[in-house]
Amino acid sequence: MLQLVEPTRKRDCTEEADAARKKAPDGHTILVNGALAAGLAVLAAAAVIWVPFLEPIRNRFADTDPGWVVATFVFQLLSVLSFVVALRGAFDRRLGWRESFDVGVVEESANVFLPSGGSGGLALGAVILIRSGIPTGFAVSRSAVLFLVTSAVSAFALITFGALEAIGVLPGNASLAGTLVPAAIAAVIVAAVILVPRALPQIDGTRGGKVRRGAAAAQAWLREAVDTSVDLVIGKREMLLILGAIGYYAFDVASMGAAFEALGGGGPALGLFVLAYTIGHAGAIVPIPGSAEGGLVGAFTLFGAPLSLVVGGILLYRVFHAGVPFLLGALGLADMSRHRHESVLDDAVEEAPKVLEEAEDEAPALTDGAAPGRTALPVSKAPYVGEAVSSKD
């Protein structure tokens, strides 16, 4: 079982591991961003309720369908749990389900309040794993694999649905600039990530300054992450990683679709909906609260959805998109804390017999002829103490 205690400092620390540690958010950062996100949500709700010209959005909420609201929650829960499945697959199933759940939901919770394209939570997860005893290189490498594969699902969705919309296979009315261009950009990015690190000569990090060493480490790290991703997905066909990454994306799209339906529907057709969702979420790359929401509002509006539906649907979606990971993340942190104390107790129980034995060897022997004022311990008590401690193991 994963030991969630401070391990002995590893000697296989790499520059990318140090970068992950520096990039990983601390509790204060998560708290501040969470407070900002909650404040923005309260302001948005107050605006919807009181601002006169937002009456169309209020009208949307007046006829909310409870069944679709439940579906929004269920799909979001399935999305987070799919991420847990993908994480376990990315780590070659070397983590148990309990550890995968704890790390996965904490990462997802961090991603909600740290808009950085999903990398903030993954960096936090890598640090948690490193401090939990997972070898540094393995933790950083497989966290990168998880990021690449989950991102690849979004990219391939953009390529597939953009191309199908552009050639008219899927229903929808959008220009080539809104369908084929995003698909082409996604295809170029995927090809660049796979081919460029190997096409360029390996940078010699032994010569030059800090920048050159950093570039050499980044190139080697990206090569390894891409090779491992390809091996897991195509070579080993790791179904936990594949299905988990697809479910993570697809259930989140379904959650937003259910939120739109809960407010009366009328959003873009399926292909355009997927494009708007994927393009809009690119706004999360900007590391400020509300960037993802702004990107989504802009994308769905450009694809022809009514503004009242877009704003209302995104508000409803974000309640569960933020709330479900937050609650599960709290459970994950509580379980980590409890597991850490359990591990400390387990270590104490394991070491107790040895400590007692060493204490007996070092202490003066007490016999029936002990000095006045000192009472000899019955010999029968010693094995009883050891047995009692061992019985707790």
What does this protein look like?
This protein has helices at 15-23, 27-50, 55-62, 66-90, 97-113, 119-131, 136-166, 176-199, 210-235, 239-262, 270-281, 291-302, 307-362, 381-390. The chain contains 14 helices and no strands. It has one domain (15-347). The longest helix is centred in the C-terminal third of the chain and has 56 residues, at 307-362. Helix content is 74%, strand content 0%. Helix 7 crosses helix 9 and helix 7 packs across helix 10 (239-262). With 393 residues, the chain is mainly α.
Number of helices: 14
- Helices and strands: which structural class? mainly alpha
Query: What is the terminal separation in angstroms?
Result: 14 Å
Q: What spatial form do the alpha-carbon principal axes imply? A: globular
Radius of gyration: 27 Å
From N to C, what is the helix and strand string? HHHHHHHHHHHHHH
Largest pleated sheet = none
Q: Provide the β-strand percentage band.
A: under 5%
Considering DSSP H and I runs of 4 or more, what fraction of the residues is helical?
Answer: over 70%
Number of strands: 0
What number of domains? 1
What average pLDDT do the residues reach? 74
Low-confidence stretches: 1-28, 365-393
